[in-house]
Amino acid sequence: MGDRIVAVGDLGPYTAGRIIDATGLVVAPGFINPHSHTHDDQLNPFIERDAKASLMQGITTEIGGVDGRSPVDVGAFLAQLAEEGTGVNFGLFIGQGSVRAHVMGWSPGPAGEAQLDEMKRLVREAMEQGAFGVSTGLEYQPGSFANQDELTALVAETAPYGGIYSTHMRSEGDRVVEAIEEALAIGERAGVAVNLSHLKIVHHRNWAKEDEVIARIEEARAAGLRVFADVYPYRAPDYAVNRPLSEWAGVLPPEYLLIVDGASADLHGLTVAQAADRLGVAPPAAAAELMARYPSVRVVALVSSESAMHRFYRADWSVISTDGEAQPKLETAAEAMRYAFHRRSYGTYPQIFGTLVREQGLLTLEQAVRKATGQVADELGLKSRGYLKAGQYADIVVFNPETIADRTTWLSPQEYPEGIAYVLVNGHVVVDEGEWKGGRHGRPIRRGE
Ligand SMILES: [Zn+2]
User: Looking at residue 224, what is its pLDDT?
Assistant: First the structure.
């Protein structure tokens, strides 16, 4: 007891040890992040078990094991998490890349029959232990060595459990349409719902494909396939953050390259096109001129289509994710920049509610809350989180819709947000009047809970 919502509405008959006055504030279910790298322990030393960065932006539940990478022994990992504690509730997918590496190393050919049988067995075992489904990261080795038949065979093992196929597709750019077709075909053939991870369209030359991408997804849904996408609200993926200008100068037009380091300070925060103006050179020559003057100049490349991101968010098949992880806050912005930390780990949900909802009117407040909570729970099959009603776990976020704001920038990626007053995890107040109280009150969670 003490960890669930007891009643909603007229609380006349009840007494409470503590009463929080939320007059004028939004009281919402805690945000559920369906694509998280928090607790990717072996891969990333910069993880905080307390998950402060996630909780401070209102996230109370995260799903990891994404992009094809996870512990192979899901049960042991969840048990370890229970023992060590976790700030957020945490569940996971079983990663196809990790399973393949475990069984066949980095061998690039198709799996043999015995190898496929062993991989299937590991997937079934993970599902028995509570995994949400199979994830892939098909731009990464060794997962990318698997062909569509091999992937379908593995994913089909999850069908009897109501598993989900969560995929970082083979391409988000030049072959994005083909990659979506492959993901949808695997879901259809395996009889499993499909989650398109961090859906985006990258590279200027591919941005015009948004109609086709949306059409493919909506055709599949019309034909009866369950498919949803999670989307994060920033235009630079991790590989485009704080990179040498030389890497991107020929790839993106100068208005999409934001100078963040290595030039004179007054140019930091300007696009290469704006800097050209400042330096009095013609935009086509701007990148070359900057590299000549500042050989170590670095940029954030705004490589994802903003128009596509906005249309994806408006579609009823999209939900919100971060694709980030609970990074500890480093001493200075410069240090955070040095590690190329991404602002999504601190700013995603405030960016949605402050910018996309309040400033741009792209989504209503209610739509955004649903895409951050109940709709995610429904898609993942979570039965006891995502809604404010009696019997649900008391994961709650209280925020001011007039002031909630993402305070991160590309020059300072680790800033806690504005406007989030309270965050409760399993009935514990972990953010109180905007202040971090801490504690590991999250729990490992299993499919269907
Ligand atoms: Zn990914």
Answer: 97
At 33, is the secondary structure helix, strand, or coil?
strand
Structure-token pair, residue 339:
């590690």
pLDDT at 43: 45
Measure 238 CA to ligand 1 centroid, in angstroms.
9
At 424, the pLDDT band (50, 70, 90 cuts) reads very high
**Rounded-to-integer distance, Cα 268 and Cα 275, Å:** 9
Which two tokens mark 311? 């249309």
CA of 197 to the centre of ligand 1 (A): 6
Q: How far is the CA of 36 from the centre of ligand 1 (A)?
A: 9
Cα(315) to ligand 1 centroid in Å equals: 21
Q: Ligand 1 centre from 121 Cα, in Å?
A: 25
Contact 227, 184 (CB under 8 A): yes
Tell me the C-alpha distance between 101 and 123, whole Å.
Answer: 13
> How many angstroms does the Cα of residue 139 sit away from the middle of ligand 1?
8
What residue ranges of the chain are covered by domains with CATH 3.20.20.140?
26-235+304-436
pLDDT recorded at residue 41: 59
Span from the CA of 137 to the centroid of ligand 1 (angstroms) = 6
Q: How far apart are CA 447 and CA 24, in angstroms?
A: 35
Q: How far is the CA of 38 from the centre of ligand 1 (A)?
A: 13
β-pairing verdict for 227-231 and 193-196: parallel
- Report helix, strand or coil for 340: coil
| 290 CB burial (10 A radius; 0-12, 13-18, 19+) | buried
CA distance 308 to 315: 11
Architecture of the structural domain at 26-235+304-436 = Alpha-Beta Barrel (3.20)
Would you place residue 146 in the very low, low, confident or very high pLDDT band (cuts 50, 70, 90)?
A: very high
Token pair 């994961």 in the structure block, residue? 395
